[in-house]
Amino acid sequence: MKVAKHAGSFGAGHGGRSRGMSVLNDASRSDGAVRAARDPQRGNTDNGRGGGPGAVVITRTRTQTKKPSMYRVLILNDDYTPMEFVVTVLRRYFNKTADEATSIMLHVHNQGVGECGVYTYEVAETKVTQVMDFARKHQHPLQCIMEKK
């Protein structure tokens, strides 16, 4: 923002220079520094002799966030855990509908392994622990594991 006042209106008591002019000079210096930071070729006024007095260099660092590794949570088939218990686990811990849970349970029964979901490491680890604890509590040998996708 540039504010300009006539030098004659306040200049008598300040040696011919008004306060309004110093605001103008400070503002124009500030704009030049920002211009120099945005476009070093155009904003540099010292004819290539290096950074002049009051030169400002503004650098902006941009952090790159890396997507977290994803892990598959798998249920393994065994000969002792009832099919209905597997469906209950899938509905309770993986928020599957009755049809989705039945489909996954049949896949586990026929193929030996089935994917319950894909999650970040901490979520997958929590789900595996919850399923294993629930299975032990009900005295079933159901195995639930996680593997990196």
Question: What sort of overall outline do the alpha carbons produce when their principal axes are compared?
Answer: rod-shaped
- The N- to C-terminal Cα distance equals 55 Å
Summarize the main sheet: 3 strands, antiparallel
Structural class computed from helices and strand pairing: alpha+beta
Give me the Rg, rounded: 35 Å
What strand order characterises the main sheet?
Answer: 2-1-3
Strand content: 5-15%
Mean pLDDT: 80
* pLDDT < 50 runs, ≥5 residues: 3-30, 32-36
Order of helices and strands: HHHEHHEHE
Count of DSSP H/I helices = 6
Number-wise, the strands total 3
Helix content: 40-55%
Structure, briefly:
The chain has 149 residues and is an alpha+beta fold. The chain has helices at 7-10, 19-38, 40-43, 83-94, 98-111, 121-137, and strands at 70-76, 113-120, 143-148.
Task: Give the helices and strands, then pairings.
Elements: H1 7-10, H2 19-38, H3 40-43, E1 70-76, H4 83-94, H5 98-111, E2 113-120, H6 121-137, E3 143-148
Helix pairs in contact: 4-5
What does the model show?
Residues 3-30 and 32-36 have low confidence and may be disordered. By secondary structure, this protein is α+β, with helices and mostly antiparallel strands. The chain has a three-stranded antiparallel β-sheet. It has helices at 7-10, 19-38, 40-43, 83-94, 98-111, 121-137, and strands at residues 70-76, 113-120, 143-148. The two termini are 55 Å apart. It has six helices and three strands. The longest helix has 20 residues, at 19-38. α4 (83-94) crosses α5. 48% of the residues lie in helices and 14% in strands.
